[in-house]
Design goal:
Length: 218
């Protein structure tokens, strides 16, 4: 069975950035709650926003009572000015108008609180395998430029190594195509095989990936 980041290295970013409780945290792009269940340990309450109701239904099965979930995005956070202690973009800034979302996040912060942005990195094996179907690397560039142009101060920054663990190569192919609601096709599967190379026959098959984070404050 596929596991992403079984070592919980991404969740370790929360330990580094939110050592103590941060009051109310807004998570943008909470998805199925994979990281929300770790984030809630660092907050009195969490508002998780995601555009996909089906993912939110999955998240409801794993989060605690301090977590509220709603359909939404970072472009229009349903909170008043200064209403939260932190905003977290969980692999989601590149999926929206990045500059607008950062301004909206800053609007909702209490004084001297922070924004955490976690984004995928391009050109890792994991990113390249998914890019066979949907290459998002240009969106990562736009999101990073928005961070640099936001006027927000970078107070911490780093890269985190994660692993995707698949039972075998076939499970990897089926998972990646299934993620996009597609059936495998020979041309793109051949491209994945070329990227995987000699490890194609590994059992389990472990694929390296990385995420990058920025901790920002006004």
């Amino acid at each position: 069975m596929m596991h992403r980041d079984i070592e919980n290295n991404e969740a370790g970013i929360f330990n580094r950035c939110f050592g103590s409780r941060a009051g109310r945290i807004v998570e943008i792009g909470c998805g199925n709650g994979r990281l929300t269940c770790h984030l809630e340990k660092h907050a009195e309450s969490v508002l998780g926003l995601d555009p996909c109701e089906a993912d939110l239904d999955q998240a409801r099965q794993c989060v605690g009572t301090a977590v509220q979930l709603a359909v939404g995005s970072g472009e229009a956070i349903p909170l008043e000015n200064g209403a939260c202690g932190a905003v977290v973009f969980t692999l989601s800034l590149h999926h929206q108008d990045s500059a607008r979302a950062l301004k909206e996040a800053a609007r909702t912060l209490n004084a001297k609180e922070r924004i955490l942005v976690i984004e995928p990195k391009a050109n890792t094996l994991g990113a390249n395998l998914f890019a066979v179907i949907d290459d998002e690397s240009h969106r990562y560039v736009i999101a990073e430029a928005a961070i640099q142009d936001s006027g927000l101060k970078v107070v911490d920054y780093g890269d985190v190594l994660i692993h995707w663990t698949f039972e075998d190569y076939n499970e990897m192919v089926e998972y990646i195509f299934g993620y996009y609601g597609l059936n495998p096709d020979p041309e793109r599967e051949s491209a994945m095989a070329a990227l995987t190379g000699a490890r194609k026959n590994d059992i389990p098959l472990i694929v390296e990936d990385e995420t990058r984070f920025w901790l920002l404050e006004p």
